[in-house]
Amino acid sequence: MKVLGIETSCDETGVAIYDEKQGLIANQLYTQISLHADYGGVVPELASRDHIRKTAPLIQAALAEANLSAQDIDGVAYTCGPGLAGALLVGSMIARSLAYAWNVPALGVHHMEGHLLAPMLEERVPAFPFLALLVSGGHTQLIRVNGVGDYQLLGESIDDAAGEAFDKTAKLLGLDYPGGAALSRLAEKGNPDRFVFPRPMTDRPGLDFSFSGLKTFAANTVAQHPQQDEQTRCDIAYAFQAAVVDTLAIKCQRALHDTGLKRLVIAGGVSANKQLRQRLGELMTKLGGEVFYPAPQFCTDNGAMIAYAGFLRLKAGEQTGLAVEVRLRWRMSELAKIS
Ligand code: KG4
Ligand code: ZN
Q: Which residues does Fe cation bind (predicted)?
């Protein structure tokens, strides 16, 4: 079975083909980052218009990359939520129409399930059950994963997502959107002893997160140093990143302790962060467990994770009807279990 996957939920157009026997056989990505950079964030209308321009050519490129023609595709998977409504509608409409024309099943995929399953595209895959830390621009969640579609939410951010806090703090430091990766590069030159930021909600029980106070703390620190010399920017970046990484690690350790799980999966854009990977790697070594990540190009949005999640569900016989519906708010616990 060969599945075409289409991701258009935000500012990346991703198209990929997953083959049951050979794995990932095509992966095309176009990022709109430069389009939105002048506005300091994603402009939904511009995002939709750009997906319209890019999706069909990327599908053609993916078919060429895999040396396939349209007749070889057995199903079409597309992100139908959560995300920006217009952007989701573009990918969903194109995917649904192609599936109709090609007379193959279509499947609307949950974007965060795509992220969650992205580590399965690697050679070393985690066995179920495991704990997943999903850290993206829109979500921060700790989930007990018993199997595909069997998700128990243990904790989540009550305000900003980790990636959102990275991006807002990066903006305060004068970095372009999305500034998470650039902030972590600044942090490499930071002095660890200059500033100490709080570790929000770690002093009380529970597995929820809150990152908006950290961003305010960063804003106040920036305001106290109006010159913003290079070293100060690096020091603030360091302190901010250390606080986020520490907070995530403390909550992961707590969730692993509570659940007795020994495997940890980290996915979503922020899982590309080197400090986070190092810190959680050390934690799992200390606990005698294992940690799994997607390859860096599959941490941020991509079509491969949608093709793969779609393949699993199409293979299990699931499919989405002809009416195109996008789901802006959609909890992963509502997804069907796959045995
Ligand atoms: O998963 P993703 O591509 O999109 C959403 O589903 O939201 O995540 C994007 C987020 C952005 O906030 C971006 O700044 C952050 O991931 N990000 C990083 C790094 N790379 C991407 N944050 C910290 N360190 C990184 N290396
Ligand atoms: Zn994403």
A: 111, 115, 301
Whole-angstrom Cα distance, residue 259 to residue 240? 29
Ligand 1 touching residue 136 (CB < 6 A): yes
What is the architecture, at CATH level 2, of domain 129-293? 2-Layer Sandwich (3.30)
Ligand 1 neighbour 277 (Cβ under 6 A): no
Give 227's pLDDT tier (boundaries 50, 70, 90). confident
- Ligand 2 geometric centre to CA of 293 (Å): 14
116 CA to middle of ligand 1, Å?
Answer: 14
Per-residue pLDDT tens digits for 65-106: 999 999 999 999 999 999 999 999 999 999 999 999 999 999
Of 104, 143, 270, whose CA–CA distance to 279 is shortest? 270
Q: How far is the CA of 139 from the centre of ligand 2 (A)?
A: 8
Query: How is the chain split into domains, by residue range?
Result: 2-117+298-334, 129-293
Give, for 278, the enclosing helix (H) or strand (E): helix 274-287
Residue 139 labelled as part of a binding site: no
Burial (CB < 10 A; 0-12, 13-18, 19+), residue 147, is exposed
What is the pTM assigned to this prediction? 0.97
For ligand 1, what atom is nearest to the CA of residue 184? 24
Query: How far, in Å, CA of 273 to CA of 175, rounded?
Result: 17
Q: Mention every residue, 6+ apart, whose C-beta is less than 8 A from residue 81.
A: 9, 88, 108, 110, 111, 326, 327, 328, 329, 330
User: Measured in angstroms, how far is the CA atom of residue 282 from the centroid of ligand 1?
Assistant: 22
Cβ of 269 closer than 6 Å to ligand 1, yes or no, is yes
| CATH fold for the domain made of 2-117+298-334 | Nucleotidyltransferase; domain 5 (3.30.420)
Ligand 1 closest atom vs CA 299: 1
Q: Pocket of ligand 1, candidates 13, 29, 30, 166: which has the most ligand atoms within 8 Å of its Cβ, to mutate?
A: 166
Per CATH, 2-117+298-334 and 129-293 having the same topology is answered: yes
Burial class (CB in 10 A: 0-12, 13-18, 19+), 278: exposed
Distances (CA, A) of 328 to 9, 82, 95, 278: 10, 4, 18, 33
